[in-house]
Amino acid sequence: MSISEEKKTAVPLEKMKWMYSEMVKIRYYEDQMVEVYSEGKAPVFNIGAGTVPGEMHLATGQEPAAVGMCAHLTKEDTVTAPHRPHHHAIAKGVDLKKMTAEIFGRKTGLGKGKGGHMHLFDPAVKFSCGGIVAAGIPHAAGAAMAARMKGTDAVAVAFIGEGAANAGAFHETLNLAALWNLPLIVVVEDNAYGISVPKKASTSVESNDKRAGAYGIAGAYVKDNDPVAMYKASEEAVTRARDGQGPTIIEIETYRFLGHFQGDPELYRDKEEVPGLRQQDPILKLKKQLLDSGMEDAEIEKMEKAAKQEVDEAYEFARNSEFPEADDALRDVFTS
Ligand SMILES: Cc1ncc(C[n+]2csc(CCOP(=O)(O)OP(=O)(O)O)c2C)c(N)n1
Ligand SMILES: [Mg+2]
């Protein structure tokens, strides 16, 4: 079964403005992170040193997937995200100050500084993420099942990379989610690579929405990293899930402007690839649409300024927060 033809309904201006402002916030957040992450890691790149120790996976360029979907969600809906989670977390409304403090390893962080950037949990908006590829899919199915058992109309969305769609957990979960008609949506962000492996070297189908047919569920494909098309595909999928009509797989063609992780030498792609991709920046495209719809430059600038201020305040909060005590290491964790 395939999702119906793209609806021609217009996206409400308020939603367009929200998506733009969130995309600017995400982009600026990650641009700041590039700088902060490099602090203390020179002269020879030392991944364990600096203000933000550990790996860092940024989603610069992939903003449309997160904002197009989260525009339809409330804090009662669940989102699970993978190792590249900042765009989803921000669009879902995770507390930006506590998120940044967590990434900085500070006591005021979402997980008291013990999780870092791949382990952000915010129960207030039902958001979680993790570094185990594909693990968020069954977690989201569990949340979808809980919503169904409680009789609410909440939905659950698992964001994953296209590489994760080849994991057993993807197929096992979708089989049961289809069988049990769960309000689950899996959003596959096809950024063309799983680390250095191109999609065509790992995936038997051209796009993962085709795999929906194997489970008798709906599938949708969003091309060109288009936030408005993502908004529309997500609207259909969320409506379907809330109405008790079961799961959907959405694949979005998206672009990763940065390396797999910060410090990635990117030897697997042509040096011309990224400048070419940046020419198709989805933020600039959406800005043009806002201007075409009659918004003034000054109003757009005001939105950009507000989004950036929120980010600056979050970084300031994180920097000024204390580190956990050594004695805290074994608190709030499972011990045998
Ligand atoms: C179960 C598991 N296997 C391998 C890894 C190592 N790993 C981290 S990211 C990644 C590639 C993921 O690719 P994709 O799903 O396309 O996401 P992207 O990084 O492109 O966002 C792999 C193999 C892991 N974290 N978990
Ligand atoms: Mg990928």
TrEMBL record:
One Pfam family of this chain: E1_dh
Keyword Oxidoreductase: yes
Occurrences of domain Dehydrogenase E1 component (ranges): 54-325
Superkingdom of origin organism: Bacteria
Example GO biological process: pyruvate decarboxylation to acetyl-CoA
Cofactor(s) listed: thiamine diphosphate
Keywords carried by this UniProt record: Oxidoreductase, Pyruvate, Thiamine pyrophosphate
UniProt xrefs under Gene3D superfamilies: 3.40.50.970
RNA-binding as UniProt keyword: no
GO molecular function terms listed in the Swiss-Prot or TrEMBL record: pyruvate dehydrogenase (acetyl-transferring) activity
InterPro entries the record matches: DH_E1, PDH_E1_Alpha_Subunit, THDP-binding
PANTHER family: PYRUVATE DEHYDROGENASE E1 COMPONENT SUBUNIT ALPHA, PYRUVATE DEHYDROGENASE E1 COMPONENT, ALPHA SUBUNIT BACTERIAL AND ORGANELLAR
Protein name: Pyruvate dehydrogenase (Acetyl-transferring) E1 component subunit alpha
Native source species: Alkalicoccus saliphilus
